[in-house]
Design a protein that fits this description.
It is a single chain. The protein has helices at 38-48, 62-76, 93-98, 101-104, 120-127, 187-200, 206-215, 236-246, and strands at residues 2-7, 53-58, 79-84, 108-112, 115-116, 135-140, 151-154, 160-164, 174-182, 221-224, 231-232. It is α/β, with parallel strands linked by helices. The relative contact order is 0.18. It has one domain: Spore Coat Polysaccharide Biosynthesis Protein SpsA, Chain A, CATH 3.90.550. The strands form two sheets. Strands 1, 2, 3, 4, 6, 7, 8, 9 and 10 form a nine-stranded mixed beta sheet that branches. Helix 2 (62-76) links the parallel strand 2 (53-58) and strand 3. Helix 6 (187-200) packs across helix 7 (206-215). The protein starts with a strand and ends with a helix. The longest helix is centred in the N-terminal third of the chain and has 15 residues, at 62-76.
Length: 249
Amino acid sequence: MIGLVLAAGAGRRLRPYTDTLPKALVPVDPAGEGGITVLDIALGNFAAVGLTEAAVVVGYRKEAVYARKAELEERHGLSITLVDNDKAEEWNNAYSLWCARDLLGEGVILANGDTVHPVSVEQDLLKARGRGRRIILALDTVKTLADEEMKVVCDTSSAVRRITKLMDPAEATGEYIGVTLIEPDAAADLADALKATYERDPQLYYEDGYQELVNRGFTIDVAPIGDVPWVEIDNHDDLAKGRGIACQY
């Protein structure tokens, strides 16, 4: 199993940082000097659970990730493969994850490149393996939800029925935090669902690909993460919160 980070996005609401950097390289160390980035946290978590290889899907300002590749490998003790997304500034992340389809067969822990979260999330996903589970989503069932969150509704067996931002928060079981464990035998089904999703609409999310799988009868499971600090960094308020969280790790 390898780690996989989606880091192709522009993150325009984080300018001026993202004038020259992809969102995943925005500094989250308290001083804001770049000593720790979201990408560092994801890679560090992968290493902490015993992974030795990782891949990063890059697109917007990808040269900044290429320039740091050797440093990131040395810092985290990982062998890193960079995967180019040629449509990162035009299409949404269903296509971005599809770009890494050839790696899914190794089994991956997928982390969004804008999610600051503790290694306990990866640990919980690994503990949830087995019993025929092929895709497992990290789910926050504690947080009070609003309109922007990626909401999930589960059935009584904790399998995903719906995953979308477009639902009444009161209906949701919890929020998908942007971290998934994907087993090797799910790779082909997921790649096909992602392709169908971005071909239907290039602006769709990879979570819409998950919904496509569910609609086809594929079971996607969840692993609750408990009451832990995490944040998806979309804007400067999120960044301030991310810096407060990152210093705890």
